[in-house]
Amino acid sequence: MPKMKTRKCAAKRVKKTGTGKYRRNKAGARHILTKKSSKRKSRLGKDGEVKKTEMSRINAALPYAKKKKKK
C-alpha cells in the first residue's frame, strides 16, 4: 500500500499539541479591526482548539501528524 498524502492546507493551519489535540488560528483578526473592541481583538489573537466534531476530518487530513519540536 502506498504512503498516504498529507493535506498541505491543513498542515499549514493546525499544529498538534503534546496531548494530541490540535490548535488553530481564529478567524476575523485580519482586517476591519476598527469596529472591534480591544478585548475581542485580544481574544482573536490567541489560538483556539479544534472541536471534537472536526477531529476525524483533521486526523484524516494529517495521517503523519507529529508534535512540533520547540527550538
Describe this structure in words.
The protein has 71 residues and is an alpha+beta fold. It is built from 3 helices and 3 strands; from the N terminus they run H-E-E-H-E-H. It has a single domain, classed as Factor Xa Inhibitor. A hairpin with a 5-residue loop joins strand 1 and strand 2. The radius of gyration is 15 Å and the shape is elongated. The model has no long low-confidence stretch (mean pLDDT 91).
List the SSEs and their pairings.
Blueprint: H1 8-11, E1 14-16, E2 22-24, H2 38-45, E3 48-49, H3 55-61
Antiparallel strand pairs: 1-2, 2-3
Condensed summary:
By secondary structure, this protein is of the alpha+beta class.
Q: What is the β-strand count?
A: 3
What is the domain tally? 1
Second rung of CATH, namely the architecture: Irregular
Q: Could you name the CATH class? A: Few Secondary Structures
> Would you identify the regions where 5 or more consecutive residues have pLDDT less than 50?
none
> How big is the Rg?
15 Å
Using the alpha-carbon principal axes, give the shape: elongated
User: How many H/I helical runs?
Assistant: 3
SS content category: alpha+beta
Helix and strand string, N-terminal first?
HEEHEH
